[in-house]
Amino acid sequence: MLDHLKANNRRWAARKVSADPGFFQRLVGQQAPDYLWIGCSDSRVPANEIVDLDPGELFVHRNVANLAPPQDANYLSVLQFAVDVLKVKHILVVGHYGCGGVAAAIDGRRRGLVDHWLHPIRELNREFRCELVEIGEERKRLDRLIELNVIRQVRNVASDVFVQDAWARGQPLSVHGWVYSIENGLVTDLEVTVRTPEDAIRLEETNVPNGRPRGGDAP
Description:
By secondary structure, the chain is of the alpha/beta class. The chain is 48% helix and 13% strand. The longest helix has 22 residues, at 138-159. The model is unreliable at 209-219 (pLDDT under 50).
């Protein structure tokens, strides 16, 4: 079983060694990535490939709908390790247009445990109901909710004690919000980057960035 995957692995390893004989030997040493990627589990959104980085260059945490909930021990463990041990310089919260998790949060169907996980998105949908109902096209309305979800997760990350403590001790650390388009392979920067506690306060006060919904447009 899965012989094709094992064969793929051997071909991939051989290609890596052929292009760079010392590639795997370098990976044996301690990883030292500059980036933490918090993204969706969707199989169409491969973190390393999207930003064209090799193994060892990107620390990755993925879950359904790229959430960063302050009560989730799994996410918090990754965040603390990335900030306190790996000393990453950038945290990328990356959603994607057409996210099935965000759509599932608001379609009214019951799916079980995942409904509890997606509850913050339902709350976000209610919070921004007035803005969202003004968007006539259903797809663009969903795209905007996907953007709002990324922004909210940036706020969650920036307000966490591990990030706040890193800033307090002078550690350079930025939190960014991006959305990836499966249709064209491009990322859109939502321009909500947080670099200091003051930036985090401003984002909290403004709640959303300036501008109207991008709705899946390329940057």
